[in-house]
Amino acid sequence: MHGSTVWEYRARHPEETRAFDRAMAAGTERYAEAVLDTCDFSRFDHVVDVGGGDGIFLAKILARHPRVRGTLFDQPHVVGGAAAARLSGECAGRWQAIGGDFLAGVPGGGDAYLLKWVLHNWSDTAAVEILRSCRQAMRPGGRVLIVEHVIGPPNASPDGKFMDVTMMVMNGGRDRTRAEFASLLVAAGFRLVAVTPTSTPLSVIEGAIDDG
């Protein structure tokens, strides 16, 4: 209708970006603690939050784990003052914000690359490219952590199925089953390590570099 993707449209309409960022922050507030209770981020030195918006989830990770450093990565018009406000205080000196395009590349040097509500925005082809960018950037032994719905069997897990339809309509993306996540990871040079449900409808899908 508007002759552009939702990302291009929001980049030209700051009020839409602000509304979207508020919605993502509200969703993160709802789910973040459950993810942090499920996934132990203390095992990592440097977490790169790819597509991390205004930094609310990264701020929660750094607050819970004072030894961990973080990089917030998102589009240049997204990364800005809100991130600085969230990541100040007890997180000061342990984070940086970088703007860019994750289809072209992501910041290097992390040993954990976090993708929360990112891959379901994209087709399988684009999702593999995003994962490959993470693989090329991460340190040896690094992990990719995908936080999304995992589509369940018929008549189960309705939240993910409603989200799947939403992504199809808005972005041409999709939510995925465990087997589909495994296929994406393999195509990008990873192997599936675990799919861990949280106390919310979201799960943590963990991939490691496949050296074989």
Task: Walk me through what this model shows.
Helices cover 40% and strands 21% of the residues. It is an alpha/beta fold and 212 residues long. The protein has a single domain (6-209), classed as Rossmann fold. A seven-stranded mixed sheet has the order 3-2-1-4-5-7-6, with helices on both faces. It is globular, with a radius of gyration of 16 Å.
Poorly predicted runs: none
How do the helices and strands follow one another from N- to C-terminus? HHEHEHEEHEHHEE
Class by SSE composition: alpha/beta
Q: Count all strands and give the number.
A: 7
What sort of overall outline do the alpha carbons produce when their principal axes are compared?
A: globular
Helix content: 40-55%
Main β-sheet, spatial strand arrangement: 3-2-1-4-5-7-6
Percent strand equals 15-25%
- Overall domain count: 1
By CATH, the architecture is named: 3-Layer(aba) Sandwich
Main sheet specs: 7 strands, mixed
List keywords for this structure.
7-stranded mixed β-sheet, globular, Rossmann fold, alpha/beta, 212 residues
Write the layout of secondary structure elements.
Blueprint lengths: L5 H7 L1 H25 L7 E5 L5 H9 L4 E6 L6 H6 L8 E5 L12 E5 L7 H14 L5 E7 L8 H14 L6 H10 L2 E8 L4 E8 L3
Parallel strand pairs: 1-2, 1-4, 2-3, 4-5
Antiparallel strand pairs: 5-7, 6-7
